[in-house]
């Protein structure tokens, strides 16, 4: 079969596909067809790393989850086709559960036939409207009544709310979950994340899709790359401890997390990373969108606060927004299983890395419906107002196959973030001292 590798008529075993998983030699399987994506990976709109993470694997479930228009993206696959799996090979690779994969495929088909992937335009119009209203209200309050400390604190909360809610809205467009046409989603994504938030759509895409493709998996999910500041899960702390790695006193990480996590993620780490990424990639379109935000902000607030006051105000707004963002995003993932690649099927992998926060009108709004994190991870292109409709079906499927489906109160979610950090720190200390 090696002789036919250059044609679309090759027949391959899983073992052979798995041997093509290096950075310069990447094959993957979609619906039993084998593709050589080595040269195309750098042109992938979702970034080359998300392709790297599936090199040598079956990518059918991820491919289906990320692309709302499968017929359209099939055009890009055709030239990459080199053959198919041998008839004697199973459709799934490694230790993936065929029954779970089939049942999840059936569930997805049911969700599609029930119209759960169709967005309600009014929902997203109203959401955008309330963000713009909050922005206008903050400026009007200062323009009408002055820049007292009390009013400045009040508008900081209003602006932080607008920024956080814009963060949830850009997330909707980034996942192509609003419009049928991907191009419309991309344009609105650039507007919301760029002009309303001052960030970069491409930076977000390339980072966030990796997280969705391989959640809580070391060296694949950037959200668990803690730059040696924290140790996570049950495996990494022991590995660090045995190797006597001690960049920081990790047994105190549940305490210093409160000083360096929520306060600094957006105003410092993300801010530096976004600017560096746009400049290093020569992403002048995203840079222009981002600069349009800061130009608008400075035009509105410099006449009221002066330059220094305006910079101080936006820094405080980012500080508040960062707390909101970190707690909402971390309570769904940080207390869950964090480990090296285990090659599970889509449903099992997402459920091990994800939990939900219980539904309420406030929780839905506060978290941008990411309290339904399980459903969002299973169906990233589904409009968020439909998560609660598919949730009972997902729960029933998990019960059928004995896969834990966790739902917590918001308070329990927050407590579990600290508890899991303390537990990981204790595991590190024990391994550091005794192993």
UniProtKB/TrEMBL annotation:
Q: What class of enzyme is it?
A: oxidoreductase
Which domain of life does the protein's organism represent? Eukaryota
Protein name per the record: acyl-CoA (8-3)-desaturase
Residues annotated as domain Cytochrome b5 heme-binding: 9-86
InterPro entries in the record: Cyt_B5-like_heme/steroid-bd (IPR001199), Cyt_B5-like_heme/steroid_sf (IPR036400), FA_desaturase_dom (IPR005804), Fatty_acid_desaturase (IPR012171)
As for subcellular location, the record says: Membrane
Q: In which pathway does it act?
A: Lipid metabolism; polyunsaturated fatty acid biosynthesis
The record's annotation in Gene3D superfamilies points to: Cytochrome b5-like heme/steroid binding domain
Q: Kindly list the residue ranges recorded as spanning the membrane.
A: 256-274, 294-317
UniProt membrane topology term: Multi-pass membrane protein
List the record's Gene Ontology CC terms alphabetically: membrane
What's one GO MF term for it?
A: acyl-CoA (8-3)-desaturase activity
Name the protein family. Answer: Belongs to the fatty acid desaturase type 1 family.
Give the source species: Sparus aurata (Gilthead sea bream)
Which keywords label this protein?
Fatty acid biosynthesis, Fatty acid metabolism, Lipid biosynthesis, Lipid metabolism, Membrane, Oxidoreductase, Transmembrane, Transmembrane helix
Q: What is its EC number?
A: 1.14.19.44
Predominant subcellular localization, coarse grouping = membrane
Name the Gene Ontology biological process terms: unsaturated fatty acid biosynthetic process
Which reaction(s) are listed as its catalytic activity? Answer: (8Z,11Z,14Z,17Z)-eicosatetraenoyl-CoA + 2 Fe(II)-[cytochrome b5] + O2 + 2 H(+) = (5Z,8Z,11Z,14Z,17Z)-eicosapentaenoyl-CoA + 2 Fe(III)-[cytochrome b5] + 2 H2O
């Amino acid at each position: 079969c090696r002789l036919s590798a250059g044609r679309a008529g090759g027949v391959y075993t899983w073992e052979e596909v798995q041997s093509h998983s290096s950075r310069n030699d990447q094959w993957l399987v979609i619906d039993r067809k084998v593709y050589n994506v080595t040269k195309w990976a750098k042109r992938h709109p979702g970034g080359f790393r998300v392709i790297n993470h599936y090199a040598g694997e079956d990518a059918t479930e991820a491919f289906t989850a990320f692309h709302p228009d499968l017929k359209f993206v099939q055009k890009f696959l055709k030239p990459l086709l080199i053959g198919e799996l041998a008839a004697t090979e199973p459709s799934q690779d490694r230790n993936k559960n065929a029954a779970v994969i089939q049942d999840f495929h059936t569930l997805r088909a049911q969700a599609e036939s029930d119209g759960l992937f169709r967005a309600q335009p009014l929902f997203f119009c109203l959401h955008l409207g309330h963000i713009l209203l909050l922005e206008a209200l903050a400026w009007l309050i200062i323009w009408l009544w002055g820049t007292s400390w009390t009013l400045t604190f009040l508008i900081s909360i209003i602006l932080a709310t607008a920024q956080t809610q814009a963060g949830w809205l850009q997330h909707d467009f980034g996942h192509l979950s609003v419009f049928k046409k991907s191009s419309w989603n991309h344009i609105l994504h650039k507007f919301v994340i760029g002009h309303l938030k001052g960030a970069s759509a491409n930076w977000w895409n390339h980072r966030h899709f990796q997280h969705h493709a391989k959640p809580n998996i070391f060296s694949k999910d950037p959200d668990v790359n803690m730059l040696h500041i924290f140790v996570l899960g049950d495996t990494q702390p022991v590995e660090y401890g045995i190797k006597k790695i001690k960049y920081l006193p990790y047994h105190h990480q549940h305490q210093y997390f409160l000083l360096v996590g929520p306060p600094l993620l957006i105003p410092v780490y993300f801010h530096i990373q976004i600017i560096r990424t746009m400049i290093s990639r020569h992403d002048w379109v995203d840079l222009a969108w981002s600069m349009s935000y800061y130009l608008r902000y400075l035009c509105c607030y410099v006449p009221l606060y002066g330059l220094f006051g305006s910079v101080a105000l936006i820094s405080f707004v980012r500080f508040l927004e960062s707390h909101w963002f970190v707690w909402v995003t971390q309570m769904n993932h940080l207390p869950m299983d964090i480990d090296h690649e285990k090659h599970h099927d889509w449903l099992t992998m997402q459920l091990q890395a994800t939990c939900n926060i219980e539904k309420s009108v406030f929780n839905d709004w506060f978290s941008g419906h990411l309290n339904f994190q399980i459903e969002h991870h299973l169906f990233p292109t589904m409009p968020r107002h439909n998560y609660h409709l598919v949730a009972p079906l997902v729960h029933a499927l998990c019960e059928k196959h004995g896969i834990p489906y966790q739902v917590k109160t918001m308070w329990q979610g927050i407590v579990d973030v600290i508890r899991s950090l303390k537990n990981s720190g204790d595991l590190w200390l024990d391994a550091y001292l005794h192993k």
